[in-house]
Amino acid sequence: MVQIGYTMMTEQAGPRDLVDHVVRAEETGFDFSVTSDHYAPWLASQGHAPYAWSVLGAAAQATSRIPLMTYVTCPTVRYHPAVVAQKAATMQLLSEGRFRLGLGAGENLNEHVVGQGWPGKNTRHEMLTEALEIIRALFEGGKVTYHGNHFEVDAAKLWDLPDQAPPIGVAVSGERSCEIAGRLADLVIATEPKGGLISSFEKHGGKGKPRVGQLPICYDPDRDAAVKRAHDQFRWFAGGWKVNSELPDPDGFAGATQFVRQEDVAETIPCGDNVDDFVEAVRPYAEAGFQEIAVVQVGGDHQREFFDWAGKKLLPALREL
After folding, report:
1. Which residues belong to the active site?
2. CB contact at 8 A, 52 and 73
């Protein structure tokens, strides 16, 4: 049986609402939660981008059962990896062991804001590898000094460490990221149900490690309204990772997706209230070997009615997969 998670989508709701949403997710019976970590929304129509780590701290205090996870944090440009390690250790203590640190190579959208430019793909993977080495070393305790090609750490130590370090997940999209994840991560993260990603992850050392996937859905009793909302707020998803990682701001995503039609979005994002449509969208993830699947309910103002429906219909249906 797969586990079904809920996504706190920081791009589409403010911080207080996000905490309220994860409380409702716990009450509804979702098995885990994940949180995006953005400095800007993908599209201006989404309208939000609060600081994910403050939201996570509040969520840890407002909930008692549901696991929490970044999906994902980039530990290379906007954040130094030594600071990410400190934040993750603190979150593990606040949540009493419910936190997992999801990491990835990042997007220009969020990382260019600190004025250091946006490295090429190969350099980003090198930086991610060094960041993972630094974070793991700090989680082990003691004083860490590190001299890499991209990062320096000078006698750093985490003074508040949990008994068990947060498990580290790495987002994958191709062979290089699968190699990094298989070698250095405790679990793998993906937003596409590609069995090849899982097999590559296993080939590089990931055999037996957890696999977490994510997909957007748009519940609404009025299917036409759901399709319109998904197109307005989530058509950026159609660009693919190679495009999405390079565009610098919401205006860029608006321009890149100006010719994406509502029917194009409806072909990739299940919309409406037909449970069978949602089950069939999730099924490829289960068949590809993902054990945990987090859904994104599109529309920050449409979460409450979603929870009512999800608890009664969606979760029971998905758990039969």
Report:
1. 38, 107
2. yes
